[in-house]
Amino acid sequence: QRYGSSGINAEYGTGNITIFGLCNKYNTSFPPRLTAKVAPEEFTETINKINKELRKNVDFTWKALLLGCLCCCCSCGITLIPPCILNNKAKRQLKKVLDWENTRVYNKIGMNWVLRRYQCERSPMMEYVLVLEKVRQKQILTTD
């Protein structure tokens, strides 16, 4: 596990399938860096919800991509459009889960989950990373 410079914690994909930068699984173990900031149960529940959503979407996208590659020569590449659409749908669904979890738990404690694209360390490829950021709190009381 590596930590992002822009957030408190960054979760990189640990699954065995990555399609268009979106991995099919994230690690559910609680990072020590979040101790006293987030409850371990809440963190694990959030990651489990994310993994459940990814399991539904990324696995189906993988099958559509494989089928699209097999038929690509006959269709002049048109069969590769559905996997791209399915990947965008998976990202939208993942963002909905993150928004729900932010509203339910993390915004109340001054944190926010976001899905960010980062370049892989040893490759020009990009991957999507879950970043837990600290949200700036607006000052209620200000001096005159």
| Estimated radius of gyration | 18 Å
| Class per helix and strand makeup | alpha+beta
Distance between the termini: 46 Å
Low-pLDDT runs of 5+ residues are 1-6
Strand content: 15-25%
What's the tally of helices? Answer: 3
Shape type: elongated
What does the largest sheet look like?
Answer: 3 strands, antiparallel
Q: What's the overall average pLDDT, rounded?
A: 77
Q: Which range best describes the helical content: under 10%, 10-25%, 25-40%, 40-55%, 55-70% or over 70%?
A: 40-55%
The tally of strands reads: 5
Taken in chain order, the helices and strands follow as EEEHHHEE
Write the layout of secondary structure elements.
Layout: E1 9-11, E2 18-19, E3 22-23, H1 40-70, H2 72-75, H3 81-104, E4 111-119, E5 126-134
Antiparallel strand pairs: 1-5, 2-3, 4-5
Structure notes:
The chain is α+β, with helices and mostly antiparallel strands. Helix content is 41%, strand content 17%. It has three helices and five strands, in the order E-E-E-H-H-H-E-E. It has helices at residues 40-70, 72-75, 81-104; strands at residues 9-11, 18-19, 22-23, 111-119, 126-134. Strands 1-5-4 form a three-stranded antiparallel sheet, covered by helices on one side. It has a two-stranded antiparallel sheet with strand order 2-3. The N and C termini lie far apart (46 Å). The relative contact order is 0.19.
